[in-house]
Design a protein that fits this description.
Blueprint: H1 3-32, H2 36-47, E1 59-60, E2 63-64, H3 69-88, H4 99-118, H5 125-156, E3 159-162, E4 166-169
Antiparallel strand pairs: 1-2, 3-4
Helix pairs in contact: 1-2, 1-3, 1-5, 3-5, 4-5
Length: 175
């Protein structure tokens, strides 16, 4: 797999994530601008993935973001992580992430939620932001290399070796 292919996939992913993040901010901006129909569509899209609790959301001009603070931190952290990836040389090599990385960065979110639900500690804007940024910022190193590798194998019609189930082959039907 050549580096230009990896860069193209990386650019597409980064563009789509930036567009998603822009939508999070666009929802309140559209509402404040009086474009209630467009804002309602944006809020409706984001309501599928977030509770959108007003008290747990950032606001622009008095209108809440499309998602809550923790979700905002996850998405913007993911975008920041994506933008930092080329600086780390991660696009030059494909490494399958260790499952421990995902577990390590999700534990703080889990602990914050559990402590809040038990009443031992109440989640704050800072804890929601910190845990969301940690998780979101680490995820590009887990997801992007795997996605680039999957795209490469699908395009090149290579066999994918799965440690669990043997060999899977992707074949396109021709007419």
């Amino acid at each position: 797999m050549n580096i230009s292919f990896k860069i193209k996939i990386y650019i597409i992913i980064t563009f789509l994530v930036a567009l998603w993040c822009a939508g999070i901010i666009a929802a309140p901006v559209l509402k404040h601008a009086g474009l209630h129909g467009s804002a309602d569509i944006a809020y409706s899209i984001f309501s599928r993935i977030c509770h959108q609790n007003d008290a747990r959301s950032f606001h622009v001009e008095g209108e809440k973001f499309g998602v809550c603070i923790r979700c905002s931190a996850i998405y913007f952290g993911f975008l920041a992580g994506l933008l930092l990836m080329p600086l780390s040389g991660a696009l030059k090599r494909i490494r399958v992430p260790k499952p421990m990385l995902i577990i390590t960065v999700i534990i703080p979110i889990f602990v914050d939620i559990m402590l809040n639900n038990t009443g031992l500690h109440f989640s704050t804007t800072i804890t929601r932001m910190a845990t969301g940024l940690l998780f979101g910022g680490a995820m590009p190193w887990c997801i992007v290399p795997l996605f680039i590798e999957a795209c490469s194998q699908l395009i090149n019609k290579k066999k994918i070796h799965s440690p669990d189930s043997g060999v899977c082959t992707y074949v396109r039907k021709t007419q």
